[in-house]
């Protein structure tokens, strides 16, 4: 279903944590031959820079020091033909694996609330989308990064369903975790993401809601493709 150049659109996918935004975004990008950008990976890369330079530790971030270093941070995505996916590079280093690890997860929330960091990331994201043909997922894509996106999707699922998915993922990796703890973490992250002052997670007025609590991956992909078709034919 490749689109001719002039029909390429911007697809913004926002929503709660652990509801499968990146899975949908990757599948759609592949189907349409669009670029997929994981905006969360960029906040994670800045966080890794802060950790490596001891600007972040013990779940605290020295905001002044990090803001002073922003010019020293270069973030890019490079396509890896072996894995067929974009990988995140920080100052020329492939950090795709490291940014998913616990120290980064523990420090990314405070980093993502720094307005100077957000300004930089948003400018980079807008540059990446200037030729359209892009699917970007995050928290503020349809509201701040691309308020003009042709298709905006706001994804959610019941907290219990999201917690169960995280639980299954982690136990499949052999980790010992408690369902109650994961559920509490899902609820707490919703609260932090939605209540922070800078670019809080909120649904854009013109976003379509996709609640995937009770549908499977194929049904979800079909629904999104239908929305793309309707948008590009409109
Ligand atoms: O793992 P999860 O999908 O919850 O997070 P992520 O997409 O990897 O993003 C990491 C962190 O960056 C989250 O804590 C988000 O709150 C934050 N973020 C953000 O503030 N704005 C975005 N556009 C994307 C992520």
Could you characterize the architecture of this molecule?
It contains nine helices and ten strands. It is an alpha/beta fold and 234 residues long. The protein has a single domain, classed as 3-Layer(aba) Sandwich (Rossmann fold), CATH 3.40.50.300. It has a five-stranded parallel sheet. A three-stranded antiparallel sheet has the order 5-6-7, covered by helices on one side. Strand 5 and strand 6 (85-90) form a beta hairpin. Helix 2 packs across helix 4 (102-112), helix 2 (39-52) packs across helix 5 (115-128) and helix 7 (159-172) crosses helix 8. The two termini are 16 Å apart. Bound molecules: cytidine-5'-diphosphate. Cytidine-5'-diphosphate binds at residues 17, 39-40, 43-44, 108-109, 112, 138-140, 193.
Q: Keywords, please?
A:
234 residues, alpha/beta, Rossmann fold, five-stranded parallel beta sheet, three-stranded antiparallel beta sheet, 9 helices, 10 strands, binds cytidine-5'-diphosphate
What topology does this entry show?
Blueprint (H helix, E strand, L loop, with lengths): L9 E6 L5 H12 L2 E4 H14 L3 E2 L2 E2 L1 H6 L6 E6 L4 E6 L2 E2 L7 H11 L2 H14 L5 E5 L2 H5 L5 E6 L2 H14 L6 H17 L12 E4 L5 H17 L1
Parallel strand pairs: 1-8, 1-9, 2-8, 9-10
Antiparallel strand pairs: 3-4, 5-6, 6-7
Helix pairs in contact: 2-4, 2-5, 7-8
The chain binds cytidine-5'-diphosphate.
Short description:
The chain has 234 residues and is an alpha/beta fold. Helices cover 47% and strands 18% of the residues.
């Amino acid at each position: 279903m490749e689109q001719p150049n002039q029909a390429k659109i911007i697809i913004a996918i926002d929503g709660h944590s652990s509801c499968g935004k990146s899975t949908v975004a990757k599948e759609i990008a592949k189907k349409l031959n669009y670029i997929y950008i994981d905006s969360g990976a960029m906040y994670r890369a800045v966080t890794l820079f802060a950790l490596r330079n001891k600007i972040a530790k013990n779940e605290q971030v020295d905001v002044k020091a990090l803001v002073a270093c922003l010019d020293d941070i270069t973030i890019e995505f490079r396509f890896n033909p072996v894995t067929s996916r974009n990988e995140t590079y920080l100052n020329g280093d492939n950090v795709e694996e490291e940014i998913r690890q616990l120290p980064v997860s523990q420090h990314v929330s405070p980093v993502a609330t720094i307005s100077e960091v957000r300004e930089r990331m948003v400018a980079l994201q807008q540059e990446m989308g200037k030729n359209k043909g892009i699917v970007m997922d995050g928290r503020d894509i349809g509201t701040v990064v691309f308020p003009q996106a042709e298709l905006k999707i706001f994804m959610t699922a019941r907290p219990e369903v999201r917690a169960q998915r995280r639980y299954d993922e982690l136990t499949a990796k052999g980790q010992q975790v408690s369902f109650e703890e994961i559920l509490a973490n899902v609820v707490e992250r919703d609260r932090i993401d939605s209540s922070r002052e800078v670019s809080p997670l909120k649904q854009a007025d013109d976003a379509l809601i996709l609640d995937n609590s009770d549908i499977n991956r194929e049904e979800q992909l079909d629904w999104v493709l239908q929305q793309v078709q309707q948008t590009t034919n409109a």
